[in-house]
Amino acid sequence: MRTDAAAQLKRSNNWRRAKKLIGYAIVYAFMVCLACVFMLPIFWMASTSLKLPQDIFAWPPEWLPSTPQWDNYAEAFSKYPLARYMLNSAILVVANIIGALFSVPIIAYGFARFDFPFKNALFLLMLSTMMVPGHIKLIPLFWLYSRLDMIDTYWPLILPAYFGNPFFIFLMTQFIRTIPRELDDAARIDGAGAWGILYRVIIPLSRPALTVIVVFTFLWVWNDFLEPIIFLRDWDSYPISVGLAFFQGRYSVEWHLFMGATLVSIIPILVVYFFAQRHLIGGLASIGIKG
Amino acid sequence: MILTRWRNMTTQERRDAKTGYLALSPWMVGFAVFFAFPILATFYFSLTQWTLVDPPVWVGLANYARMFTRDPLFLSSLKATTLFVVLSLPLKLVLGLMLALLLNLKIPGMNVFRTVFFIPAVISGVAVSLMWIWFLNPDTGVVNTLLHYVGVQGPYWFWDKDWALPSVAIMSIWKVGGAAIIYLAGLQNIPAHLYEAAEIDGAGKWRRFWRITLPLLTPTLFFQLIIELIDAFKIFTEAFVITKGGPLKATYFFLYYFYEEAFRNFNMGYASALALFLLVVIMGCTVLVYRTSGRWVYYEN
């Protein structure tokens, strides 16, 4: 009697496990197919970038080139000022990151740790500026920058970062609020002033939030398009996003080189993304939850 | 008021307040220069005729009169933008949720899939556009090749006046992983004990989805709806890079029109009026969504 029940239990356990495994297999198969579909445009770009010029319009199209032409990349780099454009983007990224790291912690520290009249109103005002689309500001800013002789320089693309991005300020303020105030008090007893506490206690403990700021700044600046085309004139000063878009107008037939250039342009983004994925998703999640 | 409050504060409180204001000062300067000034100035410029060379000339409401009564481009760009919003927004919201539900299954290795599906969302609009021009190439692109294998003659996608706008919408849906990640965070915030309790009560999977998952996810849906709405109205890069607004103005979106009026034709006054109109439309839609939120967004408290 007892052994019967045990056997039955075992059988049903086995059955349950088998069902679970079949479920896994179905889900995996579906996810793999879906992932392949999602990756097709990227795969096609990579495949084209390794083809011979005469094969790119071949019919039926080759899925994979029979002999990958790695030299295409060297040709793309020599034919288009890719390296120059990527350097320009890198300069803009670094300047914006420095600006964000300089301004955001100070402002957020003010919101998170001090009390003053109208603090909540100012915080709300700051949050509300996040909801206003940026295009509305472009014409007056263009006028302002031309009066200051800053058109065709990087200043219009860099300066705003030094005055704090509202999204980052919000993120950082929320983060600083989670740091126990006892740590501030301990530093104060050791003789640290308000700014000493910021630089010796708050900033070292804010690594996760600062990483989110760095990663988002990188992605946004690297991908920015509208502002550079408005504020920059000189082809040599273009960041990679604008440079690529303008190649297309000039050399629209060399798709093998062109797809290689596009692929190269997203490699820094992919590298940053893979290394910082956890922080990135955490940062997005936090706006999703608290926004 | 502020003065009486200030007088009633202790020395320490006053010192704190001063430090606080000092800390906020970069943002306050930035707010004045990069926010308040441009918005007020756009208001003023929209009432002028101005080509940047000469000083602005006051014309009252003439720009608005032109916009609403005799500007076919205004109407067609508004129509294209609205069509894009209506096509892409619901699809993105629903498919994003479905993808998030899949990615939320408690199965080993799901992280790899999360990484893969999120990749399109981090690539720049320009790179995505270039990739998709080639991907949707009518003759040798992947999609039309596959369609050919199953015996269907694929459309001309970006190069057909009826297909161009849907093509841009499809391309924007490729970035659905960005929305899925935010839903995922919302899903993972739903307390597990609710599901356990529902299971004990004998609720099936569908019932659990409709009665627990969906209601508790409505705050995330609401947030995502507003973000995507603003984003969809601001469509620009794709049209600029791929179609140049064509064919036959089919993808001449509102922001593109604004860009050309302002920075190609230097009709700064009229462009300011266009910019303000788009702002009012976006804000109006946001307020509308916000107003309805009381009826469908579930808040725990």
Quick overview:
With 291 residues, chain A is mostly helical.
What can you tell me about this protein's structure?
- The complex is a heterodimer of chains A (291) and B (301).
- Chain A has 291 residues and is an all-alpha fold.
- Chain A folds into two domains: 2-71; 72-290, MetI-like (MetI-like fold).
- Chain A has helices spanning 2-49, 71-79, 82-113, 119-130, 138-147, 155-158, 166-177, 181-189, 194-205, 207-223, 226-231, 240-250, 255-290.
- The longest helix of chain A has 48 residues, at 2-49.
- A two-stranded antiparallel sheet of chain B has the order 1-2.
- Chain B has two domains: 2-45, no CATH class; 73-296, Orthogonal Bundle (MetI-like fold).
- The two termini of chain B are 34 Å apart.
- Chain B has 301 residues and is an all-alpha fold.
- In chain B, α6 packs parallel to α12 (237-243), α9 (177-188) packs across α11 (205-233) and α13 (254-263) packs antiparallel against α14.
- Chains A and B meet through α1, α3, α4, α5 and α10 of A and α1, α2, α5, α6 and α9 of B.
SSE blueprint:
The complex is a heterodimer of chains A (291) and B (301).
Chain A: H1 2-49, H2 71-79, H3 82-113, H4 119-130, H5 138-147, H6 155-158, H7 166-177, H8 181-189, H9 194-205, H10 207-223, H11 226-231, H12 240-250, H13 255-290
Helix pairs in contact in A: 1-13, 2-13, 3-7, 3-10, 3-12, 8-9, 10-13, 12-13
Chain B: H1 2-7, H2 11-45, E1 48-49, E2 57-58, H3 62-69, H4 72-103, H5 110-122, H6 125-135, H7 142-149, H8 164-173, H9 177-188, H10 192-200, H11 205-233, H12 237-243, H13 254-263, H14 268-296
Antiparallel strand pairs in B: 1-2
Short key terms for the protein model shown above:
heterodimer, A: 291 residues, mainly alpha, MetI-like fold, B: 301 residues, two-stranded antiparallel sheet, 14 helices, 2 strands, 1% strand
